[in-house]
Amino acid sequence: MVRIVGRGLTRGRVGGAAIGVAVVLALALSVAPAVLAADHTVDVAGFAFAPQATTIHVGDTVTWANSDAQSHTATADDGSWQTGTISGNTSKSLTFTTAGTFAYHCSIHQQMTATLVVTAAAPATDTAATTYAEDVGDPGPGVLLVALGAIVGLVAGGRRFARRA
Q: Would you tell me which CATH number, out of the four given (2.60.40.420, 3.20.20.70, 1.10.510.10, 3.10.180.10), belongs to the domain 39-119?
């Protein structure tokens, strides 16, 4: 006579394993490198924009910080964007969604000019980069969270699939 031990894959066992796998995947994705939009500042002081040329990526934000007592603007020469009036000691920000090279000026003080270059979105992080021993630092909490998630997943899955005598 043959005795079959265990009940095979039941919904509870598959569910437990799926939860473990989901935890591991969620933790792994939480530490994956992401390309984030950046913030850039253009100083408006002494009736000038500094820096004179700024290069950013699509999705980045530029803040014009006016430290003059007088109001200024940042207005694209082609009229495609403008900050509106930036009062003294205040700032205005714009997020750029289109690539291009934009000459701009202050519409109040025409002698104030500068250039903004908006390039395609930032390139993905190079995941095959060489790491030298002296460059390795603290791995941070992400590695520990992934390891903990893997252990929890294995334990939960192992208990669900364990044979019962």
A: 2.60.40.420
